[in-house]
Structures are given as structure tokens and as C-alpha cells.
Amino acid sequence: MLKPRRKIIKKELKKDPYIEFLAKAKNNVDENKTIYMRWALGAVSVLVAVVFVSNNLQKSKDAAAVSLGKALVTLANGDVDNATLQFEFVADEYDNNESGTLAKYYLARAHFNDKDYLVASSYLNEIADASFKLAQFPVSIYKMLAFISLENGDHAAAMDHYEQALDKADIAHQKQNIALDLADVLLTIGDFGRSLDLVQTVLDEATPRTTLHNRAEELFGRIEFSQSAG
Q1: What long-range pairs does 202-207 form, CB within 8 A, spacing at least 24?
Q2: Rounded distance, CA 171 to CA 189, Å?
Q3: 180 closest CA partner among 207, 208, 220, 147
Q4: Neighbours of 153 (CB within 10 A)
Q5: In sequence order, what are the residues at sequence separation of 6 or more whose Cβ sits closer than 8 angstroms to the Cβ of residue 109?
Q6: pLDDT digit string (tens) for the chain, length 230 residues
Q7: Rounded distance, CA 159 to CA 165, Å?
Q8: 172 CB contacts (<8 Å, ≥6 apart)?
């Protein structure tokens, strides 16, 4: 036989923990309604600001990409002077995005080609640690820095830059060319062992009778001659 349900009196109902929690929560909201409203408005304001900044950043990126594209077209048409002016505008106006960084690369390249190594190295050092979507840019940056270091007689810095370029390179013939550049510097400072190791690796990997293989053979002969002369 089923027992009759026990009636819950009002006093017991009030002591129910869940009911008490809801009652306290309601009282807290009622008492601090103004504070909660301020918090809510603050959160909405932050969200609006984030969306606004994000939209502005995207517009800035789009404008920078368009300006950079125009500069590249000008350069492709052979108008180096006007292209340089356009790259300078992009570099100054959009300093903190990818297009601004690429503009600095092309400015560095232009000054490097003009043998203005002081200005070129200034731009190159500024973007050496930048993030690029294509590996060709950091490889080119470090190769130019290595060449400038050699021009300044700093073999240690040149070797560091060639090693950095070698680390960034992801194409076989590119790696082999940089390895031979590094081997040449090592030969110059008398480190025949490391130089020979690099050259031998290229000889083993490169296709015979190609420019790379011929260059490696020429370096191999210079190393052997220098070792015998020493």
C-alpha cells in the first residue's frame, strides 16, 4: 500500500537550498542592478571597439596591398625611381603590416643594387626577423646581409648570415648555392675541413656538368691547392 505524500509546509520550503540560492541571487541582482548594468554596457563597448579596430585593420591591409601592387607594377615597367617613391610611401604609411614589410624589402633590394649598402642593411636588419609567407624573402635578406658583411670585411657575420639563409632555404639548388657561398667564406678564413664537407655534399647531390656541380668542383680544387700550399 502506498504511503500518502507528506505535505511540505511553508517553513520547510523556505529552507530548500536551491530555493534559498535563487532567492539570494535575485536579491543580489536587485541590490546591484546598477553595477551589473555598467558591466554589461562596458562589455558591449569593448566588443564594439574590437569589431571597429578589426574592420579598420582589414581596410588598412587592403589599402596597403593595393598600394604595394601599384609599386610592383611600376617596378616591373622599369620605372625604378617612381617605384622607390611608392615603396617608401607604403613602408611609412603601413609600417606594421605585411605590405609595409615587403615594401621595405624592395627598398633594401633597390639600395643594394645601387651599392648603397649602408641604407640597404638598415632596411634589411629591420625586417630580418619578420614573418613572410614565402621563404624566398628571408633567404634573400640573409644572402644580402652576408654579402654586405663580406664587403665590410666581417667574415664571422657573413658566415652567420649564410647559415641563417641555409636554414631558411627549402629548395635543393638554393640550399646548394648557399652552401657553396658559405664554403667559399670558410676557405677564405682557412677552415678547410668545414669548407670541404660542404663542397663534397654538393658534389654528391648536384647533377654533373651543371653550373652548380662545376662551381663545386672549382671550389674543391681551390681547397686542395690551399691545403697543399699551407
Answers
A1: 202/176, 205/172, 205/176, 206/173, 206/176
A2: 28
A3: 220
A4: 8
A5: 120, 140, 144
A6: 444 545 444 444 445 555 565 556 556 655 666 665 655 555 554 444 333 334 444 555 788 888 888 989 998 899 989 999 999 999 999 887 899 999 999 999 999 999 999 999 999 999 999 988 888 999 999 999 999 999 999 999 999 999 999 999 999 999 999 999 999 999 999 999 999 999 999 999 999 999 999 999 999 999 999 988 76
A7: 10
A8: 205
Phi-psi region of 208 (alpha: psi -120 to 50; beta: other; left: phi over 0): beta
Residues 191 and 136: their CA atoms lie apart, in Å, by 28
- 157 C-beta neighbours (distance < 10 Å), count: 15
Cell of 159: 658566415
- Report d(CA 64, CA 67) in Å as an integer: 5
